[in-house]
């Protein structure tokens, strides 16, 4: 069997000899913010990034952010049932809480142990999603060991436009949204509402009693934004969004014998005020204050009256972007405060703050590109911590470039891991990571091929210890992998494919980490002809274990999904999707269902 380094080197060598005659120069490069915290052309980045814009979101036909992200390179997911149930994202094999999640720059990470609160956010008001794979603590502080997922919401536009969507599908799934945006040279606004509900299916396999019923989901919300642009280069704005509802789940017994209707009532809210000012021809300043609130109340047989938990992130950021004779500098100051209530669930005050200074420099010179960044965090529990990242790229030919980077990251223990009166451990140490990676990227015209190898070593890994019944720093982890991607356009045909090889393991025991497959591959082919737009998608995931001790093996699986759209007019289209066409029975969490075959059809009104 080939060694890990040999496999990585072989993948890079294969890309280097890919036929160069297939590509043409790119004319409309995508602009990315998350990779550098500054607007940067995608073909000038030195990071592994995916951008999902509004057109791609609508074309995917997916109902939720979690379904959309599950199909992206470098990401694996696990869900304990249907929509709204516990869902976790593993970016490059890192645990869910080791990935920073942002909404318009405000951290969404909470103390929720049921996975990411992304599962409660609506796709209706999302303008685009940027996925930065690889440690990014030098830019974003703690929680960014695996990467960063940032949601950018829709804003107002000049003129007055309304948009709407309504659809129906399997499991009595209903989805609807409507929005209104408008403005002129000085004012911009957008308001909208959204709703998603489903009767769902039984979350747990082999369930009985109450656990055997369908686990429904209801999620309603809305968003609003307002901007004032008094002069060129100046903007003052406010954004608000909220979703609330109920998700049902099963008791988790094996075999299930639940006698109570387990459920969670949730409310997630994000808001911010900001000002962006062009102070000089070369100096742009942005000041932002935002909050993200995650509230959940869980009803179960051991707590029929409900236990609730509320997490609030409050962040103040002052960022300065300065154009230099060579490149652009970044200077910023941040303060993040996270609180969790009720306090009576904790052995100490559940509050921590982090004060940060960060600086960066991104530049190009001839065929050379580089990005340098450093950050100093002063954490209220763990004192001072510094992180940095160095990246360099070289344009080998007009179409082929090589790049390499090295960066450090850390993850402070969560409020739950530190202070919970039952399982908390105030003596925990922060997790620390060191990542190195190398990549080759080939772009020409409407074609792009990339190969990225990475090795991320994490020390002081925090996990639950069954021997002490608390959280402990129990091990070190090694996350190594290769991601290969291709995207191309052939006339009316579009092709996208990706392959991930991942070796995520506990270095101390040499055991594979749970719920991470060694192999994942995707292939999507779509075609446009006349008023029709249709595609087929294949997703393949290898076998993996349910636990970190290599128990509860789950077999590999492959899924076939279909999408179609028919344009009735410039403003109205009919859209449909079929997921799991062949009704494959598979698991992402041992003992939990994944819904099988499902279909959905909807009508969209979207002025051009």
Please give a quick description of this structure.
6% of the residues lie in helices and 58% in strands.
CATH homologous superfamily descriptor: TonB-dependent receptor, beta-barrel domain
* SSE-based structural type: mainly beta
Percent of residues in beta strands?
over 45%
Q: Could you say which overall geometry the principal axes of the C-alpha atoms support?
A: globular
The parts where pLDDT drops under 50 for at least 5 residues are 1-26
Number of helices: 5
CATH topology: Maltoporin, Chain A
Any guess at the CATH architecture?
Beta Barrel
CATH class: Mainly Beta
Largest sheet: 22 strands, antiparallel, barrel
Multimerization state: single chain
- The span between the termini is 54 Å
| Count of distinct strands | 34
Tally of domains? 1
Radius of gyration: 24 Å
Helix content: under 10%
| Average pLDDT score | 90
What's the topology here?
Elements: H1 4-16, E1 31-32, E2 40-41, E3 48-53, H2 54-60, H3 65-69, E4 75-79, E5 87-91, E6 99-103, E7 106-107, E8 126-133, H4 137-140, E9 147-153, E10 159-169, E11 173-183, E12 187-201, E13 215-228, E14 234-248, E15 263-280, E16 283-300, E17 303-323, E18 328-341, E19 351-365, E20 368-379, E21 383-395, E22 400-411, H5 415-419, E23 431-444, E24 447-465, E25 470-490, E26 493-506, E27 511-512, E28 519-529, E29 532-541, E30 544-545, E31 553-554, E32 557-567, E33 572-579, E34 598-605
Parallel strand pairs: 6-9
Antiparallel strand pairs: 1-2, 3-8, 4-5, 6-7, 8-9, 10-11, 10-34, 11-12, 12-13, 13-14, 14-15, 15-16, 16-17, 17-18, 18-19, 19-20, 20-21, 21-22, 22-23, 23-24, 24-25, 25-26, 26-27, 26-28, 28-29, 29-32, 30-31, 32-33, 33-34
